[in-house]
Amino acid sequence: MSSHCPDQPRDADLTDEAAAWLAALDAGSADLAAFEAWRDTDVRHAVAFAEVASAWRDLDRLRVARGDVQHQPETVMPAGPDRSDRRHMLRAAASVAAVMVVGGGWAYRASARDKAVTQVGERATVAAAPGLSLKLNTDSCVYWKDGAPDRLWLERGEVAIQLGSPHRLELIAPDGRFELAPGLYNARLRPTGCELAVLQGQIFDGAQKQLERGEVAVATAGQWTVHSRDGSDMARVTAWQRDTLVLNGESLDYALAEMNRYLTNKIVIGDPALSRLRIGGTFATTNPQEFLQALHSSFGVQAISGANGGIVLSRT
User: Fold this and answer.
1) How many other β-carbons are positioned within 10 Å of the β-carbon of residue 54?
2) Do 114-236 and 243-315 agree at the fold level?
3) Domain parsing of the chain, residue ranges
4) Measured distance CA(254)–CA(306) in Å, rounded
5) Close Cβ partners of 123 (under 8 Å, ≥ 6 residues apart)
6) Which CATH architecture best describes the domain 114-236?
7) Distance from C-alpha of 196 to C-alpha of 203, rounded to nearest angstrom
8) CA-CA-CA-CA dihedral for 288, 291, 294, 300, to nearest 10
9) Which of 46, 135, 270, 305 has the maximal Cβ count within 10 Å?
10) 243 with 262: CB under 8 angstroms?
11) CB 97 within 8 A of CB 49
């Protein structure tokens, strides 16, 4: 299992955010509670702020050393009360951020998140925390942190969640957040948003129940849409845990998108007319030849090895 997982937001975005907070703190216009909430939400925020603050201090010292600014002790030119308070607050904020990113420091351990990653074609089972078990599908990345409630970040791919009583879990995805009661769930990031299926249990928004067993929520830009699914649909949602892909009349385009999740050498359509084919059946995600043989037997589709190791589909 690889340890690589691209962090979101990107480093450049975090640096810009940290620099904006630094400027606001220095100017005295920052909401300190809002800053601390931003810094404490994610250890990467603390890292970015500590780095920006360190660079700012180094630049200040360099300017003094070069004579670009007149350096005077506080006893000669004391800062006014407001400026002094702001500088004290800024130094304190930078110090806390620095402590949070020191390996072995208590604050770092309290804010650090554990991580699990799978590459294409891999699956993994993780005992993440007391009462919390995770199964990662192919090409997936999650972070988690113990707490009350526990928190789970789905950064990429798909994860099955088993949450024991009496624990609660906050699931955080790029397009929304969910509060999960004890139960079984399946969360997947799709191009349209985060899809969360309730196999057992309930999902809450604050104190109000939003979803229960047999329902699926899709979060897009913080907004939910809810759909009911029957038992066979839920079985399809969890089929990946049995290394299978269940299709029920979907297009070949869709079928290939699903199968290719598990393949390093992708299957592509060489004849656009094939896209209109409708596919049904249960196929092993670990054995693409079974899928290709079914296409050949049912539709006369030929699989040709491509120059880059992939497979091109065409009519015989």
Assistant:
1) 13
2) no
3) 11-111, 114-236, 243-315
4) 21
5) 135, 136, 137, 138, 240, 241, 243
6) Sandwich (2.60)
7) 9
8) -80
9) 46
10) no
11) yes
Quick check: helix, strand or coil at residue 129? strand
Length of the chain: 316
The reply to whether omega before 174 is within 30° of 0 (cis) is no
Q: How far is CA 295 from CA 4, 158, 240, 253, 264, in A?
A: 35, 27, 21, 13, 20
Tokens 């990429």, residue?
Answer: 156
Joined together, the tokens standing for residue 55 give: 């660079």
CATH architecture of 243-315: 3-Layer(bab) Sandwich (3.55)
Which of 296, 239, 287, 237 lies closest to 263 in space, CA to CA? 287
- Per-residue pLDDT tens listing for the chain (316 residues): 444 454 444 556 778 888 888 888 776 777 888 888 888 787 778 777 777 776 666 555 544 455 544 444 333 333 444 545 555 555 555 555 554 444 434 343 445 678 999 999 999 999 998 999 999 999 999 999 888 889 999 999 999 999 999 999 999 998 888 999 999 999 999 988 999 999 999 988 665 668 888 899 888 887 878 888 777 788 999 999 999 999 999 999 999 999 999 999 999 999 999 999 999 999 999 999 999 999 999 999 999 988 788 999 998 6
